[in-house]
Request: fold
Amino acid sequence: MKPIWIVDDDESIRWVLEKALARENLATQSFSSARDAMQALESGTPQVLVSDIRMPGASGLELLQTIKAKHPGIPVIIITAFSDLDSAVSAFQGGAFEYLAKPFDVDKAVELIRRALEESLRETDVEQSSANAPEILGQAPAMQDVFRAIGRLSQSNVTVLITGESGSGKELVARALHKHSPRAAQPFVALNTAAIPKDLLESELFGHERGAFTGAQAMRRGRFEQAEGGTLFLDEIGDMPLDLQTRLLRVLSDGHFYRVGGHQSLKANVRVIAATHQNLEHRVREGLFREDLYHRLNVIRLRLPSLRERNEDIPILARHFLTQSARQLGVEAKRLSPQAMQFLSQLELPGNVRQLENLCNWITVMAPGQTVEVKDLPQDLIEERSSNFQPTHGHGHITSSAAPAEAHGGHGSAGAGASYDGDAGVDRSWISLLETEAAQMLAEERPEVMDILGRQFEATLIKIALKHTHGRKNDAAVRLGIGRNTITRKIQELGIGGAEDD
Reply:
């Protein structure tokens, strides 16, 4: 955190504030004139500025004007005498956060500085979030279309509406549109309109004046002012209340707005990007969304595909999130086995990219070992999807109908009590049959369940492969994707007959 700057020609005031803030473990830097502070602004900035109004040379109001022109997000507290009420009014018109009237109570001064500090840190987070945002990842054709659209819009300031399911990455696309636009050097400010209570959303968007409502102890800049010159991203725009839709429409129409409780019209130079997971056309027909606002927002529409539509991107996304999670925790990144990666790639993941990221965070913390197998994944995922999970070997898929068809006639079994027939092949996958047999064996507390079922599984595969190749071991090994020595050893260990030495 940056230091709090104290600017006052009165050494005693500087000393009192320095000592009081030091007791709060807050760093300070003091200046005896506004000119010294202006020069210091060339090489650094404060978290909060506290300045007297009347000083030899440049005044505190000149310093306020300078800092607001260069760094509008820095809160400025003006120290003024009771006789300087006109100056206090000028300070607020110039954007001061609050003022301290001399003589002031030190504890109240510290409390006021703390409030300004919280405001400053909040705005710092807004400014830094764009720099810390991850890149968009994706190789699927549907994502390539999105990338091309971002490229075409790179030199445009046009309003964009992004649609797509929750968790599909709409904010990342908005950040990319900002990053590759002429406004890239200016702030990117995001606001989820569904996450803010209705009675606070107006103030959050447009700011408020001091005393505008109970608890409004100081003037506060809204998201439109924070995003000045840059981009404002309004997520879940479909949930915005109708009365606020009217205010937003005016800003989009003429570029002007008022703070809550304010009477001075403010000009907004902001590009608006909106996003929603809802069908806005339906919302318009139901009377829940203004049609004129819909057309103002829907200048250019980008539809973001769900993860189901680009599941070939799941491996690169999973590796990225595992690396990112490990870096955050200071541990070695975990790896997904081919079977676990394939399992993830077949999941529905209704939470889209956000759900996959959360899952990778879980794996980093909870999964044992560095190489993660299917059994190491969250149990609810395994139970939900195991009956539909179809593992592959090489480039071929083993389907629930093909395996039983080849095993029909008693040439293979998943275990005692589980026989294959044509009807079973249609209704149940071989994984389901395996689950049933494993559950029965575990209930009977039979020892070495893994070894018994593993041997039966390997024996079944090798027998079917040998039958398919008319007993030729070498051909069977090639078909199974294993080595000749391996199949020879397995045939001996499992006591399989009918193989030829070819």
Q: What stands out?
A: Confidence is low (pLDDT under 50) at residues 389-428. The longest strand covers residues 76-81. The two ends are 75 Å apart (CA to CA). DSSP finds 22 helices and 16 strands in the chain.
